[in-house]
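Example record

The entry below shows one chain as it appears in the dataset: sequence first, then structure tokens.
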Amino acid sequence: MVETILEMRNVSKRFPGVQALQDVSFDVRRGEIHALVGQNGAGKSTLLKILAGIYTADTGEIVINGEQATDWGPREVLDHGVSFIYQELNLVPDMTVAQNIMLGREPKAVLGTINWRVLRQRARQALERIGDTTIDVSLPLRQLSVAQQQMVAISRALDQNPGLLVLDEPTSRLSIEEVDRLFALLDGMRAREIAVIYVSHRLEEVYRVADRVTVLRDGRRIATTPTKELPPETLVQQMIGSQVREVTQAKVVTDGQTCLAVENLTSPQVHGVSFELKRGEVLGIVGAVGAGKTEMLRLLFGIDRRSAGRILIDGQEVNIHTPPQAISTGIVLCPEDRKAQGLLLDSSVKNNITLAALRRFSLGGWFLRQRRECQHAEQMVASLRIATPSIHQLARFLSGGNQQKVVLAKWLSTESHIFLFDEPTVGVDVQGKVEIYELLQELAKQGAGVLFVTSDPEEAWAVCGRLLVMYAGHIVAELYPKEVSLDEVMFHVMGGKERDQN
């Protein structure tokens, strides 16, 4: 008989103006990997926050290991063997790696003080168990890359010996090699009868690792199905309620005006990068995590200082040392970390949309025309199909895909013509990704230059007219997706060209 480790029965939750969950039942069996999928706003995060003890369900019950989880908070849930790794990593940047791994479980010395030697030793052992011996546990967490921080979060969760591990978009920050390592860990957990709830918008990962799939849509459970019995097209229809629109590849632009030229752009992580972006073009920059893509965008937007190189806008060299200087030249950036860098989470959708263009809505630069500001925000919400109950809703309560659209709406409100997108579809559902692709291509049709940075070779190959591949801080290949296979793109992304030359 299969043992059930988790049962959530007829769970409902309502927020002001929104029925987030309606009679959702969900169960997980010991030793299985159970994928939880659905569009942004389908109710996945709400369901998991109820499981974690962060939210309290209006109705329904939760049973963990046969025990009724009545009024349990996060501490009680953790004590009963349920660990969580959230998409927004729940780590402390100013603490060391070792302190983060052992937080709340610090080994004590004789007088009750922390035994730092043992703490660091146990932290190293926790990392070794997931196959990582490269991270210095004495370093402050903020000095690690985002991918390394993800591995720290995974090691901490597994070091708590969970019976059930919840992973929310766990591969969004990982390189190809790190993803393979994670999946090997998941196979090992299955063998040790550890259950896993796996939340992802990457359907190829769902089919690679999951035993069963539960689909949520509009706060309701649509179906729970063994993965091997569920065709991908059926899964997508269950998620969105209809057929997903086809993505059209951006056109190749050969004779357009060059709006952005980069010559020998150099920093400690970027090595002599040169390229041109034309008006009307969606140019893809693809590479693994750590290839230097984000660092290059930070140089272009004036966040970091370059040690060499020139930037030309419409043929004229510009000196960009700060983001305001970049914006004044027509360059805008939709950053990878939209929550921390792209939005004011505790401000309204309206305020976020109009933030970069307040002069448009002011009288003489002094008095804000609030009616005009609200009208513009309403227009942007409608045109970008931002799902929000009101333009006065706080940005933190939107789903990831809709937060991304608010960031885009902010820059569309300015007179910009060069758009830099850093991993814009991370954490975004299937339909939301298509809408973002269409928005990028619409910007290009209107004469803008679009630089689309992604770690997903398949995404870049399907969407962009031209690709530049970055590896170890260098541009190693220029490819045209209509002329090359996805395998060739993958080959360059993984450093194949460099290996052949050695």
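Notes for this example: Residues 248 and 463 are 7 Å apart (CA to CA). The longest strand covers residues 4-15.
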